[in-house]
Amino acid sequence: MTRFIPFAGLICQLLFIPQMACASLVDRPEVKAFINEMVVEHNFNAEMLTRTFNKVKLSKSVIKAISRPAEARPWYEYRSIFLTRDRINLGVKFLQKNVQALMRAKQVYGVPVEIIVAIIGVETRYGKHAGKYRVINSLSTLAFDYPKRSRFFRNELIQFLLMTREQQMDPESVRGSYAGAMGIPQFISSSYRNFAIDFDNDGKIDIWNNPADAIGSVGNYFKQHGWQAGKAIVTRAEVRNDSYLAALSKGLEPRMSVADLSKYGIFPKQKPSPGVNVKILDYELKAGRELWLGFNNFYVITRYNHSALYAMAVYQLAEKIRAKYEAKIQPEMSSNGI
């Protein structure tokens, strides 16, 4: 009887692999349903999508990579990835090379030059490492073979197909990270469609090769997520005992009133404005811990990556880039007002 079993199915039986895992992607019920949804709700061509998904290759390396994010590390290890002399120096060079676009983004969106530079530095090392995965492979893998976040990535797959159609891109040629983030600023598909802009007005939105579009898109993203121009991001805090532990909370949004800090033995090094809310940020060092207070703008940074480690790395990298740039280009700093 085995001679009537398709070869792939026979291999599945011999290796005790579930038939669903061995089935062709377009034969899987959830993929068929997805294609049908794209046809009905978004007017895609079924044959075209079937051909596209027939070429998709699901990736074990994508699952492996997303299962061990850098944000799972303690702060003292995470910080060492991004706060390096090389990344700071490259940030200064990126700022110098793109100072006009950065200054215009600051003027239009209110986001400091150094924050935009640091975001790009953390994400792709200033465009040097934008990802080599085929985005459709990554998103399909996570949408159909990563149940933990399948709903999110299924939506991103929809957004990706809409994006490539709108921008007349070949969906099989677009490359990015293992999670489907793309270009110099590592925008996911929904972010591209909602926040990416043609900042140099050349008629196209190119976040892969055009630093100006990447810079403007990051500024727009922050502005749309509530960045407050000229407002503080974080401040250091001191504690006198362990009572501050009761003030720690889940989530990243600043919800504690400054007026309540003293109740928990928390004392900011720089006194915040009255009526401001803060988020207590507790970071693990090799020996001991350090405490910070995050304001609204810190929360906005976490909208780019929902991690207090990420946002603090961006902030501290930005500060180091700004300090080094000021030291090297003091006359230009004073004339440009950076």
In total, the number of strands is 7
Tell me the helix content.
Answer: 40-55%
- Principal-axis shape equals globular
Element pattern in H and E: HHHHHHHHHEHHEHHEEEEEHHH
Helix count from the secondary structure assignment: 16
Mean of residue pLDDT?
A: 91
Structural class: alpha+beta
Strand order of the largest sheet: 4-6-7-3-5
Largest sheet: 5 strands, antiparallel
Structure keywords:
338 residues, alpha+beta, 5-stranded antiparallel beta sheet, 16 helices, 7 strands, 50% helix, 9% strand
Write a brief structural summary.
By secondary structure, the protein is an alpha+beta fold. It has 16 helices and 7 strands. The longest helix is centred in the last third of the chain and has 21 residues.
Layout of helices and strands:
Blueprint: H1 7-14, H2 19-22, H3 29-42, H4 46-54, H5 60-66, H6 75-82, H7 85-97, H8 99-109, H9 113-124, E1 133-134, H10 135-145, H11 150-166, E2 175-176, H12 189-195, H13 211-224, E3 234-239, E4 256-257, E5 266-268, E6 277-284, E7 289-294, H14 296-302, H15 308-328, H16 330-336
Antiparallel strand pairs: 1-2, 3-5, 3-7, 4-6, 6-7
